[in-house]
Amino acid sequence: MFISFEGGEGAGKTTQAKKLVSYLKDSGYRxxxxxxxxxxxxxxxxxxVLQDTSSEVTPQAELMLYAADRxxxxxxxxxxxxxAQEVVVCDRYCDATVAYQxxxxxxxxxxxxxxxxxxxxxxxxxxxxxLDIAPEDGLARIMRDRRPLDRLERExxxxxxxxxxxxxxxxxxQPKRFRIIDANQDVFTVSEHIIREITSLLYRVS
Length: 206
Ligand code: TMP
Hints:
58% of the residues lie in helices and 13% in strands. It has helices at residues 13-26, 41-51, 59-83, 94-104, 109-120, 135-144, 157-173, 187-205; strands at 2-7, 31-35, 87-91, 127-132, 178-182. It has a five-stranded parallel sheet, with helices on both faces. The chain binds thymidine-5'-phosphate. The site of thymidine-5'-phosphate has 9 residues, from helix 4.
């Protein structure tokens, strides 16, 4: 099973992905926990470039760097883990490109769709948890943690609002794959919700 986590900045995806991975491992599943950008040696280098506030990256270059990261990731990590019957939990995937580079940056959506399909060889998650939060609240969480904002987090509030709207639109179009979770709740409530959803899905496929 292929599970992805999506959402705006400060939605708590990473914490929730970790919690789900621990739950699945404790339940006896073999799990590959990975992320985009990242997950491979090349991907982690690309992640640094993409998040670095001192590098100037054009929207087109940004799109290609995320696509390069994904091409490597699919080939080196995701495909082989799925072939080995592992559960793959991925912190961001294709939907992030549609939301950030498509709606956020305003790049051509058809081209992004084609690029995503080509790079992933048509491999999309079985389930995607969209951790939904108002950008004002998500960004405030990051500030509360006193962590410096990275290159994308520093974008204008309008950019983040477009990203949120895009994710909700994607979820509305693919209700079978997406589970929208209200991320403005405490960590345990969110985690319980996710685990309930996954348990019922795993029960159905087993
Ligand atoms: P994260 O680890 O906080 O999710 O950081 C990843 C950043 O990269 C986040 O700002 C979203 C951005 N991103 C894109 O813009 N496009 C993509 O395709 C992916 C995977 C991530």
